[in-house]
Amino acid sequence: MSRHCAILFLAVAIAQVPAPLHAQATPGAQRALSESRPQSPPGTSAPTTHPSQAAGHVATAPTLIENPTALEPSAASTPQIIVTAPPTTPSAWTWHDRVLWGANLVLVILGYVGVLLALKTLKHIQKQTDFGVTAAQAALQCANAALESSQAIVDSGRPWIVVTVEPFMTVENGFKVMATNRGRTPARITATADRVRIAADETKLPATPDYGTGKSSVQFEPIILLPGESAGIRPVRRADLHALCSSEDEYRRIERWEQKLFIYGRVTYRDMISPADQPSHETDWCCWYVFGDKDALVLAGPPEYNHHK
Fold first, then answer.
1. What CA–CA distance (Å, rounded) separates 215 from 90?
2. Structural contact between residues 165 and 230, judged by C-beta atoms closer than 8 angstroms
3. Where residue 243 sits, what CATH number does that domain have?
4. Which DSSP string do the residues of 88-126 spell out, in sequence order?
5. Distance from C-alpha of 309 to C-alpha of 307, rounded to nearest angstrom
6. Closest to 290 measured CA to CA, from 249, 248, 234, 236
7. Domain range spanning residue 146?
8. Which of 138, 157, 176 is the last residue before a domain boundary?
9. Of residues 32 and 168, more confidently modeled
10. What gap in Å lies between CA 225 and CA 181, rounded to an integer?
């Protein structure tokens, strides 16, 4: 396509160069011109020709008559004299025109060569650009892989608080929610929150847990857990369930399994090795208190109530 455009541009430039024209009046045409001129009638003088007419210009006054009586109706009509200009002789093709034509031809050829070189350069630039884009994408993928690898190393060394349930050894039907550090670095628990909700089953719980109004039954003090250490964050006993129910009838429905009592909460902790500007970590947990001959407290609830961050 680019070559066709360059050839068309060369043809148009050559067509615009003026070509020399040679023309000459033939002897037959001159003879016919002299015979076509009528002779002056007797008694009249030949018309006077202006010098400009002799140079080839047409006279503005076609007829010259000295005798005014010739205009009478009875007199013979005066013949009209028509002067035909000789053909224009084209100017000769001078050396200046030849040099100009040659210069234009050289410029057209140089322009065609320049267009071809420019197209070739653009193709090389396009190839280099594509190679650069491919290299940039490969570098980005390598950087993402390195970032994921470094993040995995950091996550493997950070503290992880896991919530479990253990029974009280000295209290019947008594349990405690335990927070255990399963990571490789110390963790500092900065806050806890828990809440009790009674529902028909876990599907009736709110889609998003709300810890804003939840209060712990005991005063929590920040503690530090070394890797492998545990600490109790929420005690649960049957004797405390009456205070968690709104009425005795609701307590009886829970005891007959017509409704379920859920206790859920959140543990907020920090990594003691990471910088202070790093965000805190969170562990959400949810438990179901099961009535029976021997009560139990088991982990339950939807995934939104049990996750680590």
1. 112
2. no
3. 2.60.40
4. PPPPP--HHHHHHHHHHHHHHHHHHHHHHHHHHHHHHHH
5. 7
6. 236
7. 1-14+98-157
8. 157
9. 168
10. 6
Instruction: Judge whether 72 lies within some domain.
Output: no
Where is pLDDT greater, at 20 or 84? Answer: 84
d(CA 177, CA 163): 7
Contacts 24+ apart (CB under 8 A), 14-21: 14/105, 14/108, 16/104, 17/101, 17/104, 17/105, 18/93, 18/97, 18/101, 19/93, 20/90, 20/92, 20/93, 20/97, 21/90
Contact 241, 254 (CB under 8 A): yes
Residue with tokens 């493997």: 156
Predicted TM-score (pTM) of the model is 0.51
Q: Which of 158, 289, 170 is nearest to 234 (CA)?
A: 289
Q: What is the DSSP string of 202-271?
A: GGGS-SS---SS---SS----EEE-TT-EEEEEEEEGGGHHHHSSSHHHHHHHHTTSSEEEEEEEEEEEE
pLDDT in tens, 59-102: 444 444 444 444 455 445 667 777 777 777 777 778 888 888 88
Q: Are residues 276 and 153 both part of a single domain?
A: no
Amino acid at 141: Q
Q: Residue 13 carries which side chain, given as an amino acid letter?
A: A
Q: In terms of domains, do 299 and 174 share one?
A: yes
